Every structure is written in C-alpha cells, then in structure tokens.
Amino acid sequence: MWDKAKEFASEFFVTGDPLIYGADVSIALTLIAIVSVLTYYKKWGWLWREWLTTVDHKRIGIMYILASVLMLFRGGVDALLMRAQLAMPELQFLPAEHYNQIFTTHGVIMILFMAMPLMFGLFNVIVPLQLGARDVAFPFLNSLSFWLFFSGAMLFNLSFVIGGSPDAGWLAYPPYSDKTFNPGYGQDFYIWGIQISGIGSLMTGINFIVTILKMRTPGMTLMKMPMFSWSVLSSCIAIVFAFPILTVTLALLFIDRYLGGHIFTLDGGGNPMMYINLIWMWGHPEVYILVLPAFGIFSEVAATFSKKKLFGYKSMVFAMMIISVVSFLTWAHHFFTMGSGADVNAFFALSTMVIAIPTGVKVFNWLFTMFRGKVTFETPMLWMIGIIPNFVIGGMTGVLLSVAPADFQYHNSYFLIAHFHQVIIAGVVFGFFAGLYYWWPKLFGFKLNERLGRLAFWLWNLGFYLCFMPQYALGLMGMTRRVYTYGWDKGWFEMNLVSTIGAVLMGAAFIVQVWDIAHSLKKMDREGTQDPWNARTLEWSIPSPAPFYNFATLPQVTHQDDWWEKKQRGWSAPAVELEPIHMPKNSGIPIIMSMFWFFSGFGLVFDWLWLAVPGFVGVLACMIVHSFNYKPDYYVPVEEVQRVEAAARRGSK
What we know:
This protein has 653 residues and is mainly alpha-helical. The protein is 68% helix and 1% strand. The protein has one domain: Up-down Bundle (Cytochrome C Oxidase, Chain A), CATH 1.20.210.10. It contains 20 helices and two strands. A two-stranded antiparallel ribbon has the order 1-2. The radius of gyration is 25 Å and the shape is globular.
C-alpha cells in the first residue's frame, strides 16, 4: 500500500527541480495567508456576496484585471528564466526539458491568460458606461464567462506542480503534442485549460456584440459611438468566428491523444499540416482580436489629451472592420516555407500586405489628431505616444515577413520573435497599460501617482528596446527559436546579454507599477476624479467609481463625443424625476458551474472518469437550476438611488 502511494505521488506531483519546490512552498504560503486574513477579518461572507457571486460588469472587469496582473507576473517570471538561460553561452541554469516547458507556458499564459483577460476587463468596466447602459446584455452569462476563464487558467497553471507542464510549444504542433512523443499529462492540461477558458471567451464575444448593438442609450447611433466601443465590436466579431476554430482544433487533438484518432498522425493516415492550418486560422485573427481594442484605447487617449476630436473618425471605423475581416485571410503566412506552393504563398503575401494599409491609416489618424492640438503629457498620453514608433517598427517588420521569398531567411528565427513581441507587447500590452492609467480613476475613484507612472513607462520602454532590438540582429545572424543553449563560437553572446538586461528592466518596471498601485491606494486622493482628464465620453459624466447601477437616469446623446460637447455648451443636468431602476440579482451558479468544469477537465487529464462524468453532470444540473430561476432581477427603489447619488457626488468632486 505504501509503495503504491509513493508511486502515485511521484507520478502525480512534479518533483526533482528546486524551482518547482520553491513554487510549491510559495503557493502553500500564499493560500495560507489568504485564508488566514479572510478568516481573521471575518470576510468570507463579504467575499461571497460582493465579489464571487456578483454580476456587476464593473466588479467582473476588476476581477479580470486582477487575474491578468497575476498571470503577467507568472508569464514574466517564465520570460526572465528563459532570458537568464540564454544570457551566456553554454549555461546549464535550466535543463532542456524544463526550458521547453517554460517557453510553452510563457506563450500560452501571456496570450490567453494575461492579454485576453486584461482586454476583457477593460471591455467590462468601460463599454456599458460609454454606451450609457446599466449593465451588459447578459449579466449572468458575463459572470459565467469570467469564472470559466478563471477555471481554465487555474487548471492550466496547476500543471506546473501537478502532472507536469506542457512542453510542445505554445501552439502544440503535432507530432510534438501526440501521445507517442508526449505521453505525459501536460498536454492534456493544455487542451482542457484552454478549452474551458475559450468557452468563456466565446460567450464574452457574443455578450458584447449584443450589448453594443442593442443597449446604446437613446440618441447614440453607431456613428456617434466612442471609438473604444467600435474597437470592442470589431474584436468581438472576430472572436465569435475565430474561437470555434480553436475549440474544434483542440477537440480533434484530444481525440488523437485520448481515443487514438490519428487525425494529425502522418503514418496513421492523418496530416499534421491540417492542425497547423486550423490553429493559425484561429491564431492570426487572435493577434488582431487583441490589438484592435488597443487601437480604440489609443484613439480615446489621443483625442482626450489633444483636446480635439479624433481625426478621421469614419476612416478609423472602416479600418477596424476591414482588419477584423481580412485577418482571417492571412493565416498561411506563418508557414510560407512549408511547401504550400507559389500561388498560395503569393495570395497570402498580398493579403498580409493589404492588412497593413488600414493599420497604417490609424497611425496617421492619431498623428493628425495630435497635430495643432493642445497636447498634455500625463501618463496615459506618454503610453500613447510611446506606442507609435514601437508599432511602426512592428508593422514594418511584419511587412518584411509577408514577403514570401524573404521569409525563407526570417522564418523560425529570432527576427520573428522580435517582431511578434514588438506587436504584442508594444502594441497590445502597452495599449492596455494606457487604458488602465486612463480609466483607473473610473474603476477605483482615485488616480495613480504620476511620478511613479512615468518611471514605469520609461523602464518598460527602455527595457523593451534593449530586450528585443538585438533579437532582430540575432535572427539575421542565424539564431533560431526554441534553442535553449548555444556555443561561444556563434557570436551571439553580446546581443543575448543585452537582451537579458532589457528583460530585467521590464521586470523592474512591473515592480514599479505594483508599487505605484500600493502607494496610490494608501494615499487614496479622490479629489476631482469624476472627470480628471477633462475627457470626451459618457463614462466621465458620472461619479467615480460609478454607482452599481451606473446612470441614475439614462443620458440623451445628440453628438459624437457628447459629454465634451455638453461641457463646451455649459450644460447642466436637468432636474429629472427618478424612477426605480431594474437590475440583475447576484448568482452563485456561475462560480459553482465553473468548479464542475474544473473537475471535469481535471478528471479528463488523468483519465479519471469517476471525476469527469460527475463534473459534467454538475454542469448540466447548474444549467437546469438556472433555467428554473424565475426571479433573476429586482428594482432599486428611488430612495436608495438618491442616497447613492448624493454620496457618490460628494466623494468624486
């Protein structure tokens, strides 16, 4: 019995690596600290009522953002470990197997569990406020979307200490991800962590399309809608077409691994190139799913801090919608070198070049918005200006990669790594940072410290250039992706050392941002936070943070940038008789259902049908229980609205 228990434990838990043991200790201490604090201050009931069961879009957005920050820390540590291994030739800091696991988890976490939830967090907090709505179209579904994302993320991250991390690369190409070459549990954690999270992402896309199309306040036509909301619409349209492809692709891979389907096994009658086509049919639109909302943020920030209307509003709208469509016609440029043929390569080369045109349009629109404007340089505007040279370089190197003959040189090299990070970090993450600094007062009712914000901005940008500019040269010098060590004779040492120093600076920038939040939270300066930037859109017309019902009376919109126009005319809110406000009730079903999904995924990873089947039964039971909930809403009485409004106005003036 004891021998069987030891054998099971050695297979179930990851052992033999000091880094893993350190992670085990830190996870245990963190959990103990959280449970102790909640118990000591008797906050379990508060946590359940106010957060775990909430359907308030603002609180769901904050939870998305908090989860994203935690995943940024995890993915950033992975990046620093990789850069430490590559800082000098012939280092043995990480063994090859562990390095493969780290670069796999780094990619998955940063794209799907850091950038996506940060994006969804900003969707949730801002879009209903910009539209003059009191919530999203489907509040219950919104809560379920978050908890499915969170369950998938936790299931994936659990592989670090239980079962073993996936190691087939962040897109899990066969045959590296086949059962024959990858018999461990890590790849199944990969499949089910992403599958469960992806269901939540798809539901979020549907929810926000309906919210934007059906819940705009009276008078807000589509062409009076703020640019961030337009960017969310274009991104969500891409989500609802792209994520079903990912779901089917991973389901087919699971059939290969679990049932021996051989769909992607060459010697079993399948074809691994089919997987690569399918994964990039999702993968390239995913890049634009992430970057389109960042474009919307830059547009809002540029107009606000230039004190001008956004230049070329209609062209920006058309450019975003064109990108969301054309992004589905570029996937094959990821494998020009794989023998698709000249005609196929030519088509995808041209489609990739074409998508650069609407992307370039936006850069010129931002520049013309700032031209002759009364530009001020608060922290959000610094991020906005800093993105322009970064994104131009990323776009130009993307065009270079779109040239099929030249791609034979760039393919699979560090040139590609540098380009990808130039777009994703300098385009997406920096954009979301701009949005966080810009909308932080709206989320929490106080501004972040400007001095610390500027320090973080400069550290991030200096670190980014030091980290990734040398990688373009390394790629042209012949350094390929996925190498975990190299010799002194390669001539890559100096560039890799500089790149590692840059990564350390970006890590320091993240620490400064955490310090900024802690410092600002301590001071909690709420003075003038209703509209601290003298902004243009409706979210700034109400107190900060917004009341749980958002608007006491729904605003009437007559112009694009309606809040700005009203301020210019010296408008004051007319006396309106308040009415009871219809709001959704909190629900514990989403978090309970997501727990059943977690159990199902965990059971399928280890082939424990005794756990997986009851998990699916629990999911079905939650659906049935919710279908019989005939009172999912309530009315906020006028007296409570008056009390909340009076307190909110006092706090945010």
